[in-house]
Each structure stands twice: as structure tokens, then as C-alpha cells.
Amino acid sequence: IQQVFKQLFYMINAVTLNNLLLRKDVCSWSTGMQLRFNISQLEEWLHGKNLQQSGAAKTLKPLIEAAQLLQLKKKTSEDADAICSLCTSLTTQQIVKILNLYTPVNEFEERVTVAFIRNIQKLLQERNDPPQLLLDFKHMFPVQFPYNPSAITLDSIHLPASLNLDFLNKV
């Protein structure tokens, strides 16, 4: 069950983040607030079902960072430092893309300046990020089967003759 929910939450993360990276109309402060609220609801659900150790919440980390990036101030060099220290799961390309797509919804917000985006790129240039922008939503985590040793010893097993396993020898 834990593995299923980890996979499901990864797919939620990948599809949502990819939509955020491809659609200018959703890159705003209010979307960041809405995303963060919805993610917290998913995290509370996991906690309520005792699935916190499944790793499902960790798969949402890039989406959480993207929501926080949409909510942060984006003006000063201190803001740039905060963004760089906060966004460790997002690649440089993803951070820059979100900042480029950021669209103010009301008059209290401002567009992200080109100088600010260049400052972010300069601060993040030593990262060794993969070159891909979008997440692979078809990625599958490997299935893990727990090992449960049997109390039955192999020398106590009787093989019926009807199975025709004469080629097996007890050692």
C-alpha cells in the first residue's frame, strides 16, 4: 500500500509541476497559495492513514518548492539567496522557467525582472542539474517485496512423488 501511494503521489507531483512549467496563466502568487494548501491537505491525509514513512510526502518536495517559489518576494539579492537555498529539489532550468512565467494577478504584485533572473542563474551556475525541464510522469519506482523468513526448514519438507521431481536430491 505504501509503495502504491508513493507512486501515486509522484504522479500527482510530476503532472502538476509539468503543468506549472508549461502554463503561464497558473504561475502566480495565488496559485502558489492554492497549491501549498492542497499539498498540506494531502500530507495531513497521509498522516491520518499512517503512511508518512511510505516516502509519498518526499515525492511532493519539488511541487512544494515551486509553490513556495511562487509565494516568495523576487526583488533583492537576499531574495535570490533565499530562493537558491530553498529550491534544492528543483533544477536551475525549472526555477528560471517558473520565474519567467510568473504572472502578476493584481496590482500589488510585480513581474520578475530580467536582472533578478540573471542573478538567480549566476548563483545556481555551479549546480550539476540534469538538462531536462519536465518531470517524467511515467517514471515507476521499483517494487520492493519484504523478506519474511519461513519457520519451516528445507530438510523437513516432503515432496510427493506425483510432482515428478525425481531430479531433486536432498543434500
From TrEMBL:
PANTHER family: DILUTE DOMAIN-CONTAINING PROTEIN (PTHR16027:SF6), DILUTE DOMAIN-CONTAINING PROTEIN YPR089W (PTHR16027)
MF GO annotations: GTPase binding
Dilute domain segment(s): 1-126
This protein's encoding gene: Myo5b_2
Pfam families the UniProt entry points to: DIL
InterPro entries membership: Dilute_dom (IPR002710), Vascular_dev_regulator (IPR052072)
Source organism, top-level taxon: Eukaryota
Protein known as: MYO5B protein
Species this protein is from: Tychaedon coryphoeus
Lineage: Eukaryota, Metazoa, Chordata, Craniata, Vertebrata
